[in-house]
Amino acid sequence: MIKELILPNLGEGIEGAEVSEISVSIGDKVSLDDTVLVLESDKASMEIPAENEGIVKEILVSVGETVKTGQALLKIKHSDEKTDKKEPKEKPLETKTSQKSTELPLAAPTPTIESELQLSGSDTTNNVFASPGVRRLSRELGINLQVINGTGEKGRITKDDLNGYIKIQMLLSNRGVPKPEPEIDFSKWGNIERQKLTKIQRITGQRLQSAWQSIPHVTQFDEADITELSQYRKNLNEKNTKKKTKLTFLPFLMKAISKVLRERPVFNSSLDTQGENLIIKNYYNIGVAVDTPTGLVVPVVSGVDKKNIYELSEELIDISQRARNKKLKPKEMTGGTFTISSLGGVGGKFFTPIINPPEVAILGVSKSWWESVYDQKTKKQALKYIMPFSLSYDHRVIDGVAGAAFTKRFSNLLSDLSTFQEK
Amino acid sequence: MSKHKQVEIAVIGAGPGGYAAAFRASDLGKKVVLIDRDSSLGGVCLNRGCIPSKALLHISKVMDEAQALSKMGVTYNKPKVDLAAVREHKNRIVNQLSGGIAKMAKARKVETVEGVAEFKSNNELIVKTKDGLITVGFKKCIIASGSSSSMIPGILPNHPSILTSKTALDLIDVPKRLLVVGGGVIGLELGQVYSALGSAVSVVEFLPNLIPGADQDIIRPLHRKLKKQFEAIILSSKVLKIEAKDNNSLEVTIEGPAGESKEIYDKVLIAVGRKPNVELLKLENTDIRLDESGFINVDVYQRTSVKNIFAIGDIIGNPMLAHKATHEGKVAAEVASGVPSAMDARVIPSVVYTDPEVAWVGLTEVEAKKNEIDYEKGEFPWAASGRAIAVGASQGKTKILFDPETKKVLGVGIVGPSAGDIISEGALAIEMGADAVDVGLTVHPHPTLGETIGMAAEAFEGTITDLYVPKK
After folding, report:
1. Is A192 within a domain?
2. Cβ contact (<8 Å) for A136 and B341?
3. Does the interface predicted TM-score (ipTM) exceed 0.90?
4. Domains along chain B?
């Protein structure tokens, strides 16, 4: 019996994803849950497992194609039916030749790139009001006259309208995309390798660039004394030997952040697209940047204020593992109100994280150190465990005083164990 | 052994479309070969169509005007026609123009090949020349092989007394009685030539009107004139049979509304339309598709279903006009050379070079009624034009059709001397989207026949002072 593998629902609001990899070929034997396809949406990559054991009979999609929920991806034949081996081998040949035969007559005349390029512009100019000369110019410029509003006498499209349109297009494109730099041939100075960026890397890159260019960032540096918190965490971990995994600092940071956000709603907001209203969110979903082999992803832990340290810890471990295994659902990466990027396990002192829009602030945590600190109360030097952190915020929404107050409050909350001890 | 050439662009047919395509492509830096089966470049238009017929129509018109002068106090003797000298005059014009094209080809380094081209594949032609076969490999090809006269099936195609437009223009003799089969442009133009040279001309048309397709109000003055010049205008009739007589005269059986009749004519000119020259091309060796009427299908870039082969002019369909072919030829050459271009002309003017001339562009009333397109009309009778009266052209008329909402010019129709020269303003108005006010407020020189276009727009606007138009 041949079964079609249907693309399952990828999550709310996700209608399709791009096929980035086909892990099987026709004739391959697959077992239940073997990865057969890898899809990449603009948020994450997902592995699609086989739903039954068998032999891949037909692959109905190709790399680069966008597939939609409910679409048939593969045909898999149950392996218990031992059928003629020939068939699967013939199939790919067949499809190849049939493709060729339909393409050949078209391929022979070879519409070159030049001839493809030049044919832009309006195919039908009958319902536009433009002189033959303007029509010709529009073809040279590759502008569809249907989208131009004529400013000439009686609404005629003039050459100036075309020039104006080009200027606007240039302005628009300059805003988001840098001017293309001339390609440099690095190989003339030595051996090089070319590495293709993953889709996640490409998308992340675009988003970071747009965030960096469109948001006026200010980064506030601060430190927190986490000597007591560190000891408290140690104690908890020693007490809870039953738990397989140990608590990291991150659940504590999340908890403390959710408190600061509650007190200072402007940090838990977004600007509307007109830049006229601030949308304050009364829920606290914190995104956590996770480094994966294919790039940076930011799964979101929702309702942080309502979860205790252990719940947060478990959830964090689960999503970061699944993030690394490409098993995150797209909806697990949406709806964040604030992001934490922690390099505490790696090193470095302070860094300037880039805001994850439409959020307005992001916390960057670096590696803690021991420091001898003069205590004014006790008039003594004491060793303290210091955590350096940075807060980048959107200066359109948050002013410097609020930013500094935020970091101070956060610092104080981390030094005060009662932050974590309620409930 | 056959020779081989490799070119960037091969053009088949050196008519007004083909040579324009070849020259444009060459001017855009392409290596071009221009192939024609005729040793004389210029195609039908130049060798046996527009140009020779206009040379002869000029003669017939001047003869007619000279005669008309008798009403104005100047009398000439009856004209004597030296047919050999007329033929010589016509040939001189043709040779001069054809030679001019050859010179321009040479100056542009466009290679011309005399021979019949056929396709071997989507990328190769075989040309049969006097000196054997040449294969021509091409990257792009532009088919401009034109059209030739259609014959009525089963009617003596090779009889010396059966003429086509081509043989009629050879002016072998002036038949006493000439029957023109087909009351279209070609039939009436040549009928008028032969009438002026002394033939008693009859014309038979299957449809109830001359120049079917044109608005009858602008055909009527021509019809009236032809009625005086011709022996008979036989409408709603068709030729059933043509039988050769011993003395090379022809007995023609015509079936009309009143039944069948038989008449003897010295010659019969068949002018019932033209068919695309597709047979010799061996298109079956390519993937080019034809439409139901046997024309080659093209897109706005003049590309056939094979994207490196273009087609232009008569071979892609009606209207079969040289000026349409020329424009299409340039578009094809530009697209084939990688220059952004497309055939997006809104209108193509049509002209009947009879006396009086008839010309129209854009929407006609016939078409508007057929397709239920709303229009309004401005008319100016030439009887109110001082210039027209002075040159004896008071039968003429200029009319403009306007969009009822935007008042933009949709179409123009003119009958009268120089109608074909005046019509260009109508074409420009339509291309530029001019409306009644634009045309009316454009100052036209007085007194001219071209002025009538401005007058027609003013008549529509109600601003005219050369006519009295009662208030709408």
Report:
1. no
2. yes
3. no
4. 3-149+275-336 (3.50.50.60), 162-272 (3.50.50.60), 350-461 (3.30.390.30)
